[in-house]
Amino acid sequence: MTTWRRVNDEEQWQGIKQAVALGLASLFVGAAWMVSSRETSCEAKVDDDEDKFTPEERKALPAPGQVNNLKLYTKAEVAQHISREAGGIWVTYKDGVYDITEFIESHPGGASKILLAAGKAIDPYWNIFQQHFRTGFPLQLLESMRVGSLAPGEYVEEKQADPYAVDPIRDERLILHNSAPCNAEIPEHYIMESYLTPNELWFVRHHNPVPIIDPNNYTLTIKGKLQEKFPKHEVDVTIQCSGNRRSHFDGVKKAQGIPWNMGGVSTARFGGARLKDVLEYCGVKDPEKNGIHHVQFISQDEMLASIPIEKAFSYSGDVLLAYEMNGEEIPTDHGYPVRAVVPGYVGVRNVKWVKEVFVSEQEAEGPWQRGVAYKGFASNITDLQHLPTHVIERAAPVQEPPVTSLIVHPANNAKVHSQTLEVRREDVRVRVTGEQLKGWAYSGGGRGIVRVEVSIDGGKSWHTAELKEGSEQKLTRAWAWTFWSANVEVPKELQGKSSEIMCRATDASYNSQPEHASSIWNVRGLCNTAWHRKTVHFD
Amino acid sequence: MTTWRRVNDEEQWQGIKQAVALGLASLFVGAAWMVSSRETSCEAKVDDDEDKFTPEERKALPAPGQVNNLKLYTKAEVAQHISREAGGIWVTYKDGVYDITEFIESHPGGASKILLAAGKAIDPYWNIFQQHFRTGFPLQLLESMRVGSLAPGEYVEEKQADPYAVDPIRDERLILHNSAPCNAEIPEHYIMESYLTPNELWFVRHHNPVPIIDPNNYTLTIKGKLQEKFPKHEVDVTIQCSGNRRSHFDGVKKAQGIPWNMGGVSTARFGGARLKDVLEYCGVKDPEKNGIHHVQFISQDEMLASIPIEKAFSYSGDVLLAYEMNGEEIPTDHGYPVRAVVPGYVGVRNVKWVKEVFVSEQEAEGPWQRGVAYKGFASNITDLQHLPTHVIERAAPVQEPPVTSLIVHPANNAKVHSQTLEVRREDVRVRVTGEQLKGWAYSGGGRGIVRVEVSIDGGKSWHTAELKEGSEQKLTRAWAWTFWSANVEVPKELQGKSSEIMCRATDASYNSQPEHASSIWNVRGLCNTAWHRKTVHFD
Questions:
Q1: Is pLDDT at B38 greater than 50 in this prediction?
Q2: Where does the sequence pass through the membrane (chains A, B) (predicted)?
Q3: B514/A512 CB distance under 8 A
Q4: Which band of pLDDT confidence, cut at 50, 70 and 90, is reported for residue B421?
Q5: Which CATH superfamily is domain A4-28+174-394 in?
Q6: Which of helix, strand or coil describes residue B492?
Q7: What part of B 264-293 touches A (C-beta under 8 Å)?
Q8: Is 2.60.40.650 the CATH number for A404-538?
Q9: In sequence order, which residues have a C-beta less than 8 Å from that of residue A6 and are 6 or more positions away?
Q10: Which range among A400-404, A407-411, B42-46 shows the weakest confidence by mean pLDDT?
């Protein structure tokens, strides 16, 4: 049952690539066609659950074809159109026939994915990638490529199984941004209720349905080898979506993507095998001499991501192949049976449902690593559609996030008692704890928090907050957030008035947060770490 | 001649400390009394070449004693006053007798150093630590502790040798802040003349006279073992004083310390043995299991600093015991015969004239690591004298500096041709290169530069600069600066006017620079990385 294999895979990749196949025998439920797909370039793809076109861009698109005047085709005829040479690449959707030849390179999910449907119906794919139905745009775009219709009788609507029907049942307290795929954040007032976030309240950020994995047929043999062969290593890790606080960019300009407020972050104690131990066991050594620069992860749902070998192969990098989360088996929503936990890195590199791990000369392909989805461009770039390839290639994928801090208590617009700083009871969203201002701070790369400062008068004066849980972490390996609280006397002149409260943190490398979101705005809405501001009313 | 020794040193330090004595047989020229001294706590000491009292604090000091009314003592009587129990700790300076008992813990250079003179004359020490003469304050302070005078005939003025007389002869182009000890920066217009700074133009930041070391009596055997035993490893490293740009804080409030402009930075290709190889050779292994958290360096002039073991013991940390600099032997001013080169760390951790290296449970003692000298406090802390010990202890020493970028060309107040952006010839300080705006960017911890943005209209609009030399570095191991240049069209409305030009950089962790120096001002004036601004006149 153990299948720690080293596989040379020279055909597909150049240079050295020792594939450590955490080999799963094509167990991917209901979507076996996905297993062989790989992204192949860094075109201007966005993440496949985003609606990347602005209203202006949409207007500029060609109008849908005149359905009535179009030619009729059989499915057999469509099936012959699988290459440019064969007269173009065609697909069908319901009874429509479409020539997608020129569109392929622009497909947000990657050229290789859309090519899986060449000559065939895209209906089953769209049934899984329901992002295509989030807005009417993909259908509108498709109609602009219409070349005909299926002849009468050729198209029979099949009842598609809902691939999201088996997604886990989720805690009702989560704030749902989408359900298919699930993107949900933890409500503000639960963020700091405990240092380690309960599993059921962890934020969820998915790209596809949750893979349902039968541990008995899983060759990673979670109940056996991984736990037995390598010592269990436990690390407290904060994982944050790189789009957390994206909606806080709205004041500058709306950015693309899920409009996370401040709940795309959670913390757990993960337990698992150290990736370094596993790599060494599989024979990886002297990565520098052997031209190994990255470790790539592939998930059951074909999500690809990579991290630098310096991180993966360092004993102090603390990268795990984790099978435990807060002392339990990792829940399905969070990567059961195995999640790559990459402390100090943004969420997207912490690949869930790990199917394969291998070392490589290059970083992972696909929209998440080499595409635009997780790259922070300059503020003056607003049009991803016409971005030259070399600009995309040179842009850095977000790996370690920058230093940040947030005010969790009190809530925005709360009424705050000037003497005690307690929040008045009518604000039911915030628990009255007797504590004053509180929040958390965190920086990527394990850089500990050395200071949090708060202001209750719109930035005129600043006070140093007290660092609490998490402040005992080593400044070089602080993988989890640091809670803070502050007692600030409300001056007479603010009593009975509204005021802007704010916080800012400094990490062990003395990096600090930018004052305004405008200086770091980016079209993908990543890494919004501007000083966090809220308005409160002092009574 | 080889003396790679492991020494257990349990008495002085707690826990494990495998001393890798790069053993030098007390060759420290003219100051053998220093060899056994060690700092012992983290009191509010500033660096020993700083004048730490504000004018207000000075006024509050007691007036000098009435010399005429004081008692007379013999040297033998003074020699008995070496402890509190013996009636106090006394020293003499010229013919004055002083009771320093209460002052000892406040001595900026550390209690242990001043205690070396207990019962004796401090004259020879002050002759070496000439910082005591930079202002009249130390003498004024000393006078306030006067208890008497030496009896007639007891004091004979001795001609003291000038310990700085043998300091290297330095390039006249350096901008000298002090000469004893030497603190000199590279002039702005030479900073980017070459990617690697020529050795004679490297910035110099010393605490004491330059040790003169005879390689024939040096048990590190530079000409032998270090080079033979370990493979030579070469790394391009930018070293920057953590006080670089300190004077740019002046607009907010003057900070303590040498008023560096922007020339406290240089870059070289260093060659040497990897520290990891040396530590492994000396038997260091499994640092985590063995409770090893830091590697400490001691220099010939008793400067102490340490770095985390995660950095020192990582193959990708690239820490060197360097003996070459730009292909030459390391010059005396830069650490001959061996300098610890710690890529991605501030200058002070790159210890010169290394005498001893050892692993430790704790970080180094002394003012440079545990004292206030290299700690960045909150903006509202302006008085280091009354800072509680726990505040100092909890503050983090500057290790990796934050992301920064600077405009080197054109010079401040330059007249710039609006069409070509060339600087007019009458500005002789800047070479006309035909290039437009240019500068460099750098971040600590090897975090590569992913973007530099420039504005020529005071921040209203921003342009992405082109990244040049240095941009080919790995984003995870970018130890040297990245040069940049930008061609920005001067709009009609700016022509014939003065304008503020500025730059800001983003590193691979998406950290960015603070907009204003006010948000990061700190009393020690460290890590000023605010957007760099200059005024130019477009003709």
A1: no
A2: 20-36
A3: yes
A4: low
A5: Oxidoreductase, molybdopterin-binding domain (3.90.420.10)
A6: helix
A7: 288, 293
A8: yes
A9: A18, A19, A20, A282, A283
A10: B42-46
